[in-house]
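Task: sequence design from structure.
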């Protein structure tokens, strides 16, 4: 029917059809809501012995029948509650031993609709089903926990006596370098550069982290390793004395043109002498103890897919061959007890066999051969348990390139099932958090990982919407900058891969050690250190957009994780420029204060930790969403535009009633932020808000 034609010119049939449509009841899709939080599911984390109560919300007196659907079941839901806005329907799913998907079917007149994580649809899409994973529990302390990532070498130098020295050893063709100026930019190839940050430095700054409101520290790797990033582990049993304590410190440095590490006797003594290693472990135990005193948990980085060529099991540099208490490494001797730990391609190449499998072909990163070595398998399981046990008592593991481990998917899943059992046996509340890009759902079934570093359902959508930049600053996409539909659709799609217990503990970062600093992305430049130079990463940044990003970070489902220095205004291209030192004495104190206030707001309400989220409004360069539970209701508005905007937000959708008032608890702007507790009244279910350019605001029900 063409409605541009005057109604009088319609045929009688078209007129009858028009009146029929006008009389047909209309389903209010915006009122329909359910999710996997405790607002709509009880219990959120059922055991295989428990029934699960499921609720669905609809507009008051709007639907005729609601069915809870799962497997082949079609259960009529009962209206159990009503208020002036909504009806609430309830159904019960009996105990299940396997992961179970469920969805809703709504009937109004002749129209049948479905509701899932995708929202209201006319056809069912199983991809977006809600899911129950029986016996899947994630640590309660981690749900919405505010975390802080520390790259130790660049955080704070608390003990200059343990610094890596110039020419202490050679790695990847370069001698180690002690960077004397804390503010110096990392070079484009800086794996051998050390600034001197250490664990005593962390202890000295724990009061700062406590004042910031941090609830957990995630450390990049701390174990003995030759690089500053330490993803090439040399000894899983000990903390690197360069981060810890060096008591025995004799030996010689290398000559300028000497790359034979057997002559690096100072390094060998520093990292192989038991007195240094045990003292460093003791210091780390003290770090955890001091953090725990302040209510701060500690997460270690576990690199179990590969080790380093310096590793005592491989010993490519022959550090351990002549040291007491160590076995021959697999590179050195065909009869080494560690030979099966690696895949060697040439059985005739010993001694000093360099023909082995390296991760992505890197000789410095030998891939661990779990399938070929039960001894290795058991060794790493003991490592997993060792560090969550006394006296170290860490609170979880972050797992590097976790999906890559092993040589088949089947084995990968078996390993992580066993890893989970080993860790949770010692500490059931330890978190197991994996680095992963793409769909993580096959690992998030309750028997392997708890969650992931949340690239797909946080870092990427936020970055594209606010900056139009790819997370490495390698590409600018004008079609994604300010694209509210792409933002909400991307979030819906990727968040649907999580069961709620995993989403609530997902690590939500704006920056980290693998990607450019978020503040640099706000300059819309594509580049890296070797293409544009380090200073270009500091230029043209928009601190107003950074403030918007922090508001989203502290109000989005998951565990907001601050990469050290982001709160102080640190910039930088992707690896290694993103690993600049913390600017002690030159911090952006206003940005730190904003972080403190937003962290305080985040921690003040369970609505942010475990509550529901609902998208309320979107237009070009503007998004609004609600976070809510039975007690608290928040509305977040973000204006990423270069212009001021006035916008109506439908707050009735999160249960804010007519004539209620909402209080603005914080407003960020291009210039700063303020907290004025301005109130707005609800009119016809909406609030009218004025948003300055590059601003964000949080409103709360009064």
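Answer:
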């Amino acid at each position: 029917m063409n409605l541009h034609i005057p109604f009088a010119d319609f045929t009688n049939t078209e007129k009858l059809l028009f009146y029929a449509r006008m009389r047909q009841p209309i389903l209010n899709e915006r009122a329909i809501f359910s999710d996997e939080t405790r607002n709509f599911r009880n219990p959120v984390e059922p055991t295989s012995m428990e029934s699960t109560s499921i609720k669905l919300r609809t507009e008051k007196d709007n639907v005729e029948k609601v069915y809870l659907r799962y497997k082949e079941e079609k259960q009529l839901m009962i209206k159990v509650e009503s208020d002036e806005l909504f009806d609430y329907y309830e159904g019960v799913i009996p105990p299940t031993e396997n992961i179970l998907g469920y969805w809703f079917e709504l009937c109004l007149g002749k129209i049948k609709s479905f509701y899932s994580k995708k929202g209201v649809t006319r056809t069912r899409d199983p991809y977006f089903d809600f899911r129950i994973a029986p016996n899947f529990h994630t640590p309660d302390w981690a749900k919405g926990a505010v975390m802080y990532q520390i790259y130790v070498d660049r955080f704070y130098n608390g003990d200059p006596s343990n610094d890596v020295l110039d020419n202490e050893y050679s790695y990847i063709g370069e001698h180690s370098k002690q960077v004397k100026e804390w503010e110096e930019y990392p070079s484009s190839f800086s794996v051998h550069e050390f600034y001197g940050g250490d664990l005593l430095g962390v202890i000295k700054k724990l009061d700062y982290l406590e004042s910031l409101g941090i609830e957990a520290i995630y450390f990049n790797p701390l174990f003995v390793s030759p690089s500053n990033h330490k993803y090439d582990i040399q000894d899983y049993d000990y903390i690197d004395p360069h981060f810890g304590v060096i008591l025995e410190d004799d030996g010689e440095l290398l000559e300028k043109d000497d790359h034979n590490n057997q002559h690096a006797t100072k390094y060998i003594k520093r990292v192989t002498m038991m007195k240094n290693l045990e003292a460093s472990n003791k210091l780390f135990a003290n770090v955890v103890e001091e953090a725990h005193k302040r209510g701060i948990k500690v997460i270690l980085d576990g690199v179990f897919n590969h080790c380093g060529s310096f590793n005592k099991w491989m010993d490519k540099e022959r550090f351990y061959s002549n040291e007491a208490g160590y076995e021959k490494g697999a590179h050195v001797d065909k009869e080494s007890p560690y030979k099966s730990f690696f895949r060697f391609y040439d059985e005739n190449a010993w001694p000093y066999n360099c023909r082995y499998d390296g991760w992505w072909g890197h000789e410095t990163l030998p891939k661990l051969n779990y399938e070929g070595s039960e001894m290795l398998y058991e060794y790493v399981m003991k490592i997993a348990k060792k560090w969550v046990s006394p006296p170290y008592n860490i609170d979880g593991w972050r797992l590097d390139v976790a999906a890559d481990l092993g040589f088949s998917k089947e084995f990968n899943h078996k390993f992580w099932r066993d890893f989970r059992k080993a860790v949770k046996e010692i500490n059931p509340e330890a978190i197991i958090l994996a680095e992963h890009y793409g769909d993580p759902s096959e690992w998030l079934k309750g028997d392997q990982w708890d969650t992931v570093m949340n690239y797909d359902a946080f870092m990427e959508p936020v970055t594209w919407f606010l900056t139009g930049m790819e997370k490495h600053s390698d590409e600018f996409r004008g079609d994604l900058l300010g694209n509210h539909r792409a933002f909400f659709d991307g979030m819906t799609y990727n968040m649907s891969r999580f069961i709620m217990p995993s989403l609530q503990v997902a690590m939500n970062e704006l920056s980290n050690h693998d990607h450019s600093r978020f503040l640099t992305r706000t300059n819309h430049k594509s580049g890296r250190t070797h293409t544009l130079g380090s200073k270009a990463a500091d230029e043209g940044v928009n601190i107003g957009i950074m403030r918007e990003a922090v508001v989203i970070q502290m109000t989005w489902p998951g565990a907001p994780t601050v990469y050290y220095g982001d709160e102080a205004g640190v910039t930088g291209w992707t690896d290694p420029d993103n690993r600049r030192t913390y600017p002690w004495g030159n911090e952006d104190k206003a940005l730190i204060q904003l972080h403190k206030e937003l962290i305080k707001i985040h921690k003040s309400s369970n609505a942010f930790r475990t509550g529901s989220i609902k998208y309320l409004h979107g237009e070009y360069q503007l998004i609004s969403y609600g976070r809510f539970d039975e007690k608290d209701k928040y509305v977040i508005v973000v204006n990423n535009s270069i212009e001021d905007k006035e916008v109506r937000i439908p707050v009735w959708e999160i249960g804010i009633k007519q004539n209620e008032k909402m209080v603005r608890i914080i407003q960020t702007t291009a210039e700063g932020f303020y907290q004025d507790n301005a109130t707005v009244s609800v009119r016809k279910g909406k609030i009218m808000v004025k948003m300055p350019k590059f601003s964000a605001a949080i409103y709360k029900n009064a």
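DSSP finds 15 helices and 33 strands in the chain.
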